[in-house]
Amino acid sequence: MSLRLQIGRVGAVLVLAFAALASRSEAQVLNSGASTITLQAVLNDSLTVSLSSSAVNFTLTPSSATNPGSLGITATTSWALKPSVGSVKVYAFFASSTAALTDGAGDNIPSANFEISNNAGPFTALTTTVPFGGANAGLLLSTTRILGNNRSGSHTDLMNFNINLTTIPSLPAATYTGTLTIQAQAL
Amino acid sequence: MNTRKLSRITAVALGLALATTMASAQALNSGAQTIALNATLAESLTLSLSANAVNFTLAAGAAANPGSTTITATTTWVLKPGRTAVGVYAYFANAAAALTDGAGDNIPSSAFFIADNAGASTPLTNTVAFGAASGGWQMANVAITGANKSATRTDQMAFNINLTGVQIPAANYTGTLNIQAQATP
């Protein structure tokens, strides 16, 4: 083999090698810097109470222990709570313990004579001081412990009502009106 | 110096712990939902008697002809504010003929006496809210105050027919005595 031929072969190999390298150099990806987007999704805590009805009537018999309300009312409490909340409590209360219902002429039915049976439990007078309303004018209807699996949940309280007149036998004939309030608290 | 730093760090830590506790103890309250209550105590006034019949065995001209039994009238009321009194009355429909034999012979109401709750025996000679003129008697008058707008009263009645000066023939005399209550005004 002549020297010229050998040089030619070497040259050809070198050309091919350079061509291959150049081709590889053109296929390499080019990345930009990473830009970030901050995501924030807020689930606000909430606590609501809704009532199946908003009026109850009573036909009173003097001195009678049993003067039932015309209907039961269901309070539905719904919540979405922060992890730090330990319980949800539902309260019934009046603004005044001495005049839960009144005839407007100075004759009153105290909250101690107004009773609620919650979810078929015993009738209980509204004589406790609760976070809302007048002193000695409330009743804790229910307590729901908040655990990992019920931070978003609901609870129903079916309330039946009664006015016990045994301790106020001298109540005069009249129409007595009042406002019972239902409210929940998460703590 | 180290002690001061440690104190400051402790104070800051305590402050943070307190703030955290306060934040977690904050109550979340629902809206207040109201229920309108309406209770009606109707006005009432009732009177009931322990018995409905009294017999007398009469002796001509005698002042004392007592009835066979006493009768208790129980008056029960539930009154509206504004009522000031409850009266209980005994009366006949006819003063001249409280009892009659049906043949024109009568015992007048003035000869018929009631002793209420062991009080004095009193003839029915007044004009009262019910019945005939001069044919009645108000047995009781209860003043209504704030304490007794809903209450009960009893009147035990003992009866007598005084035939002094009453000329009547032998016969069977019958009549109807009414007991009735009234709340005023």
Features:
heterodimer; A: 187 residues; mainly beta; Immunoglobulin-like; 5-stranded antiparallel sheet; 11 strands; rod-shaped; B: Immunoglobulin-like; 3-stranded antiparallel sheet; 13 strands; elongated
What class, by secondary structure content of chain A? mainly beta
- How is the CATH topology of chain B named? Immunoglobulin-like
With strands numbered from the N-terminus, the spatial order across the biggest sheet of chain A is 1-3-10-7-8
- Chain-averaged pLDDT of chain B: 90
Number of domains of chain B: 1
**What is the average of the pLDDT values of chain A?**
89
Distance N terminus to C terminus of chain A? 98 Å
Spatial shape of chain A: rod-shaped
Name of the CATH first level of chain A: Mainly Beta
- Give the uncertain stretches of chain A in residue-range form: none
The major sheet of chain B is characterized as: 5 strands, antiparallel
Instruction: Please provide the ordered H/E string of secondary-structure elements of chain A.
Output: HEEEEEEEEEEE
Amount of helix of chain A: 10-25%
Specify the structural class of chain B.
Answer: mainly beta
Q: Into how many domains do the coordinates of chain A divide?
A: 1
| Approximate strand percentage of chain A | 35-45%
> How many individual helices of chain A?
1
Strand count of chain A: 11
User: Largest interface by residue count?
Assistant: A-B, 54 and 31 residues
Notes on the protein architecture:
The complex is a heterodimer of chains A (187) and B (185). Chain A has 187 residues and is mainly β. Chain A has a single domain (46-186), classed as Immunoglobulin-like (Sandwich). Chain A is built from 1 helix and 11 strands. In chain A, the strands form 2 sheets. Chain A has a 5-stranded antiparallel beta sheet with strand order 1-3-10-7-8, with no helix packed on it. Chain A has a 5-stranded antiparallel beta sheet with strand order 6-5-11-4-9, with no helix packed on it. The longest helix of chain A has 25 residues, at 3-27. Chain A starts with a helix and ends with a strand. The mean pLDDT of chain A is 89. In chain B, strands 3-4-11-8-9 form a 5-stranded antiparallel beta sheet, with no helix packed on it. In chain B, strands 10-5-13 form a 3-stranded antiparallel beta sheet, with no helix packed on it. A 3-stranded antiparallel beta sheet of chain B has the order 7-6-12, with no helix packed on it. Chain B has a single domain (44-184), classed as Immunoglobulin-like, CATH 2.60.40. The longest helix of chain B is centred in the first third of the chain and has 24 residues, at 2-25. Helices cover 13% and strands 39% of the residues of chain B. Chain B has 185 residues and is mainly β. Chain B is built from 1 helix and 13 strands, in the order αβββββββββββββ. The A-B interface holds A 45, 47-51, 53-60, 62-63, 67, 73, 75, 77, 81, 84-85, 100-101, 103, 105-107, 109, 114, 131-132, 161, 163, 169-187 and B 23-25, 27-44, 78-81, 146-151. β11 (174-186) of chain A pairs antiparallel with β1 of chain B, so a sheet runs across the interface.
